[in-house]
UniProtKB/TrEMBL annotation:
Keywords: Aminopeptidase, Hydrolase, Metal-binding, Protease, Signal, Zinc. Residues 154-358 form the Peptidase M28 domain. It is an enzyme of class 3 (hydrolase). Pfam families: Peptidase_M28. This is Peptide hydrolase. InterPro entries: EF_Hand_1_Ca_BS, M28_fam, Peptidase_M28. One of its GO terms (molecular function) is metal ion binding. It comes from Starmerella bacillaris. The keyword Chloroplast does not apply. Residues 1-15 form the signal peptide. PROSITE patterns: EF_HAND_1. The keyword Signal applies. Coiled coil: none annotated.
């Protein structure tokens, strides 16, 4: 895709700013479980989130328009790994120091709230990091995917050399939120989801330094407004569905930095492999990747309906899965507050998520699926 000047892509239009003011008082339609819809004001949405109740905001997504007539054959994932040598060569370049440095900058924005100008600034910083890593490669595009609110999503595409139409997606969300007063109070969002966003950025850095070229297309997504009812990812996958984009797998990582029994605490450490509202085959395949490429095991766990952006991919018929920092009952309590800072996170635990991501990209980027 043709690159436009950064300023013309990221600086919000007046219409977006006005919309941002108007939309707050409006009624939203939300879906709390399959088919269970209700209306809520913005303040009621925040109250639900404070109660840890999750939902899709479907105000702009007419359910009946979701089914498309194009159906892709189901992806069958490999039974064993094939990229062990390549992985062994690249994995040592993944760095806990880099993860920490980048996360400390990413959490230094006052908030990354999707409806704020701070959230535009953090998005611009992220864009510039990616831009620098891409360098002069012309087979990689970076799309600033605009929404009705201020902060954009960022979609990076490494064109496949053999099957460019088959797309493997790596996802995380870039926004944060303070659930008390989102527009006013700070939200460092270190674990949620600065950790996932920097985990995937670190893998992207290592791939770029190794001159990586996949056979299938590999995309890295940083969604906006996950915290507002999976709004950014719904926009993206709705667009992909209407445009007949053939996503063969989507892996979301939302919170990768904290573990109750972490390396830091010299305790038992594990990843949480989500088993509800995910694609079972992709989830099964992730077990192979974790046991092959990570130094900690997984524990199966559930997070409920619409708990992160993989749910948006799933809603449009794409095979998606979700890996989180631990069993759901053990995830960080600091999220959505001013306390969600880099200080309580474990960058070696995060590195395990980066290894999983690297294994996933190397394997599926070159698999015949
Ligand atoms: C799907 O196909 C049916 C029957 O051909 C048609 O009525 C419907 O409008 C199509 N839906 C979409 C979203 O294209
Ligand atoms: C791209 O950048 C690399 C490293 O900076 C350089 O070696 C190479 O010659 C450049 N290629 C082109 C086509 O400019
Ligand atoms: C999807 O988004 C792209 C880029 O923002 C846009 O050009 C395209 O028209 C959109 N497709 C649909 C079907 O809305
Ligand atoms: Zn969150």
């Amino acid at each position: 895709m043709k690159l436009l000047a950064l300023s013309s892509l990221i600086v919000p239009t007046l219409a977006q700013v006005l919309n941002d003011e108007v939309v707050i008082g409006n009624e939203h339609i939300i879906e709390l479980s399959p088919g269970n819809k209700q209306t809520a004001t913005f303040e009621e949405l925040l109250a639900l989130k404070r109660e840890k109740i999750q939902f899709f905001d479907i105000t702009n997504f007419d359910e009946d328009s979701i089914t498309t007539n194009v159906t892709f054959p189901e992806a069958i994932y490999p039974k064993k790994t094939h990229q062990n040598k390549k992985f062994a060569k690249l994995a040592p370049s993944l760095s806990a120091v880099e993860l920490e440095l980048k996360l400390r900058t990413f959490t230094s924005f006052y908030t990354r709230y999707a409806r704020s100008s701070h959230g535009v600034e953090s998005c611009t910083w992220l864009y510039n990091q990616i831009r620098e890593m891409i360098g002069n490669r012309t087979d990689i595009s970076i799309e600033v995917f605009r929404h009705e609110w201020l902060q954009s999503s960022i979609l990076v595409r490494i064109e496949g050399s053999e099957n460019p139409d088959k797309v493997i997606v790596v996802g995380a969300h870039q926004d944060s939120i303070n659930l008390v007063l989102p527009s006013i109070m700070p939200a460092p969002g270190a674990d949620d989801d600065g950790s996932g966003a920097m985990t995937t950025l670190e893998v992207f850095r290592v791939l770029m330094e190794s001159d990586y070229k996949p056979k299938n297309t590999v995309e890295f997504h940083w969604y906006s407004a996950e915290e507002l009812g999976l709004l950014g990812s719904q926009d993206v996958f709705s667009n992909y569905s209407s445009s007949n984009v053939d996503v063969r797998a989507m892996l979301q990582q939302d919170m990768t930095g904290y573990s109750a029994g972490s390396f830091k605490n010299e305790g038992h450490d594990e990843m949480g492999l989500i088993t509800d509202f995910v694609n079972p085959e992709l989830t099964e395949y992730l077990k192979l990747l974790i046991s092959t490429y990570c130094d900690i095991p997984y524990a199966e766990t559930e997070c409920g309906y619409a708990c992160s952006d993989h749910a948006s991919a799933g809603k449009y018929g794409y095979q998606s899965a979700f890996v989180i920092e631990s069993q759901f009952s053990n995830v960080a309590h600091q999220i959505h507050t001013t306390e969600d800072t880099a200080d309580y996170l474990d960058f070696y635990h995060m590195l395990e998520h980066a290894k999983l991501t690297l294994g996933y990209v190397l394997e599926l980027g070159s698999a015949d699926i």
